Write the structure tokens for this entry.
Amino acid sequence: MRQRADPPRRAIQWSFVALALVAMGALALAVPGRMAALLLLGVALGVTLFHAAFGFASAYRVAIVHRDTAGVRAQVLMLALATVLFAPALASGTLFGQPVGGAVAPLGVQVVAGAFLFGIGMQLGGGCGSGTLYTVGGGNPKMVVTLVAFVAGSFWASLHMGWWQAQPGMPAVVLGEALGWPLAVVAQLGVLVLLHRLLARFDRAPRHPERAHRLRGPWPAMAGAALLAVVNFATLALAGHPWTITWAFTLWGAKAATLMGWDASTAPFWQGGFQQRALESSVLADTTSVMDFGLVLGAMLAAALAGRYATRRDMNWRSLAAALIGGVLMGYGARIAFGCNIGAFFSGVASTSLHGWVWIVSALAGTVVGIRLRGVFGMAN
């Protein structure tokens, strides 16, 4: 693993700390108790992602270009821990007396195509689903452009869902149900152990010891991985489903389009009961939106406490073009592929749904293309 230099010690940015805390408090008071708990889980995710610099897009790029697989190996640990935590709850169908279900989706052309587009997009946009949110929270204005384009692309794809769903595919395959949960967990853990060993052999980065945990960061990638797995399990317990991110972007785009005169009755996707209720309700009634808000605010709080919240970044037309194109590709791809690196890959694999594995293979193919395209926009690898 390439050694990551310590950021210089900086003064706490109290104005941004206060802003983040006030926003968190206002949101917590505006939602019922369960939603407030989910907001706090989002905050915990934002703090973890920021301090561990836990990115998916950068981890894949560094692994492919520099043969530094530490970030990807941390993801393998995260998947293994989440699999073990999820399995008993998903096998019984309840957790602490509440019904729960995994992140499960059909297999087909739309998953392959969507994940491939997402892989390209996250290299051009500069982040994945979670990465976009936590870097926005950290004060990166370019990622605000990526997020707006992400939202637009996600809504755009919702208008085409009927066409994509008519493409060749097959029903969802859940290993826990097909093999039985004990055998499925053993089989999946075996695959993950094998992947970890192969990644370790492929790695050619200089070896450096992981830094000890410090409140102001950086945190070791493995610590971040473990925390993300635990918080995803807590999300399953509170929300009844695993952690997701990009459904909220689709919803925000639809609400913005409605304000501009769009008629939801013209789009079959938005005639579903769940979608109609979400569109008619406040975003504060949507669990994914509330957690996304918490994630942004958690990253903002972490950045300000570390003295690293910064809104001034150099941008040029090429970087903005990459952000726009990348955001649209990620939004469109995530919607048709039933999620992003979190909802489809992380939560899907943790739920032993095969679509999660199909998603990551397709996304890595797109990542290779995206890495090549970065040079067109003057972006270093």
Observations:
- Confidence is low (pLDDT under 50) at residues 1-5.
- The two ends are 16 Å apart (CA to CA).
- The chain has 17 helices and four strands.
